[in-house]
Design goal:
The complex is a heterodimer of chains A (about 200) and B (about 250). Chain A is mostly helical. Chain A has 10 helices and no strands. Chain A is globular and about 50 Å long. Chain B has 2 domains: about 70 residues, Orthogonal Bundle (Arc Repressor Mutant, subunit A); about 160 residues, no CATH class. In chain B, α3 crosses α8 and α6 packs antiparallel against α7. The chains are: A mainly alpha (about 200), B alpha+beta (about 250).
């Protein structure tokens, strides 16, 4: 049993039901490193992938991801399930850290480059990602395709570009109020289309 | 007015607010179940976005994370009880303990109550705030009370200290907003020996805070506030310390 805890959870299908991220985090809060390793295995590709998209540099992204998990380990006992699931919580810590990193390393050249890329290709449909997309990713992609282009653009710039809504307004030369509305309406549409429990 | 804030739920869930806006919105969230409900749903929708950016992390990252956590103790849970309860408990405890042990205990307890995470922290702070205001008023009525205001690089800090009650209240005004993973920490800086933590605190959206801690400042001529990683540090991060006269 001790060895199994450290197995990658998706490598070997197990008979027993998978512990939920919530269970694993609760055990981590009590100092269970094995549970935390399982939580890492369940979530690392989501966390690292998002950080990589925002930060772009793989070495820096790995560093930031390591910080994120250390922070999650420290804060495990303070996770409040009333506010939502463990993955959204982890992703929120992750997004803050990723944005902090790009802001502290902010060279204008890098930002320009980032904006150019974001506006040329939609950031979520590069060929490589399409090829290895899971069914869920395809589903999310379809939902994103169902948004209006302005909604998708505002959400992508804010989330994967790491820009604040004010910066998005500036980049797109539209009023802040319009950005707020686009982001909110777009997310509501995503929520409803994905049927996520609120 | 509520609708004006409610429209921020999307940008908040997407983490697209700047620090000051986020702090202000979190304060609103604490008292607005409609927004809290919406944020939960939108945050989950935001989490789904990360499915399209999934990428396998480098293999050595896992070993790095596991080696890292082996050296870090998880923080204790936030004890969700009113600040006042702990103050009463501490005053009882003081009878049996030496002053500095008491300060350490007070700091630890207040840190547990005050330090939190995300908006639960703001919620707790908001809850404690009205109690704090009457605490300050009663403190100022004490004989021998001292109050010194110090201008900081941004904003100001006033320390109100009652030698009779060994109560210290820090009134921070217009302090810079901090990102969610950072916190302010109060320190007592004795002339010799290491700094003594007075616990961590966060400001409200306007950069204001009324923060109370018990402690004996006899022989302590300086206090300081520093910016530390969430949860606080054992010793202040030197580059961030600002001294406050007492």
């Amino acid at each position: 049993m001790t060895g199994m805890r450290f197995e990658r959870s998706h490598a070997v299908p197990s008979q027993a039901p998978e512990p939920s991220p919530e269970d694993l985090l609760a055990r981590s809060a009590r100092g269970d490193e094995g549970a935390f390793a399982q939580l890492y295995d369940l979530t690392a590709s989501r966390i690292y992938g998002m950080v990589l998209r925002v930060v772009r540099d793989p070495a820096q992204s790995a560093e930031v991801t390591q910080d994120i998990y250390l922070e999650a380990w420290r804060q495990a006992a303070r996770f409040d399930p009333a506010r939502g699931g463990v993955l959204p919580w982890l992703l929120m810590i992750a997004h803050r850290r990723a944005v902090d990193r790009v802001r502290s390393a902010q060279a204008s050249a890098v930002r320009d480059d980032k904006y150019a890329t974001l506006t040329e290709d939609r950031p979520y449909d590069s060929v490589a990602e399409q090829a290895q997309a899971s069914l869920e990713a395809q589903r999310v992609r379809r939902v994103l395709d169902g948004l209006t282009e302005p909604q998708r653009e505002a959400i992508s710039l804010a989330y994967f570009g790491g820009y604040t809504h004010r910066e998005v307004a500036e980049l797109l030369r539209i009023p802040l109020g319009t950005v707020k509305t686009r982001i909110r309406d777009g997310l509501i549409r995503m929520r409803d289309a994905l049927g996520v429990a609120s | 007015m509520t609708d004006e804030l409610n429209v921020l739920a999307g940008a908040y869930a997407l983490d697209a607010l700047d620090d000051a806006e986020r702090a202000r919105f979190e304060e609103h969230l604490a008292g607005c179940e409609r927004c809290a409900e919406e944020v939960r749903g939108l945050r989950q929708a935001t989490a789904e976005l990360s499915r399209v950016s999934e990428a396998e992390p480098p293999a050595q990252l896992r070993a790095g994370v596991l080696a890292g956590i082996a050296q870090v103790r998880p923080l204790p849970p936030v004890v969700d009880s009113a600040l006042a309860d702990n103050v009463v408990a501490l005053r009882r405890a003081r009878v049996a303990r030496s002053t500095w042990q008491l300060v350490a205990a007070a700091c630890a307890l207040v840190a547990i109550v005050v330090a939190g995470w995300g908006y639960s922290q703001h919620r707790d702070a908001a809850r404690a705030r009205s109690a704090q205001q009457s605490v300050v008023a009663s403190l100022l009525a004490q004989p021998g009370v001292r109050a010194v205001t110090t201008s900081l690089s941004q904003g100001s800090g006033t320390v109100v200290y009652s030698p009779g009650e060994h109560r210290i209240v820090l009134l921070g005004r217009d302090l810079p907003a901090l990102p969610a993973d950072k916190t302010y920490q109060l320190w007592m800086l004795p002339d010799t020996g290491p700094a003594i933590s007075g616990g961590t605190f966060r400001t409200d959206g306007a950069g204001n805070v009324d923060y109370q801690v018990h402690g004996d400042l006899t022989g302590v001529s300086r206090m300081g506030i520093s910016v530390e990683p969430a949860g606080g540090s054992a010793q202040p991060t030197p580059s961030t310390v600002q001294l406050i006269g007492i």
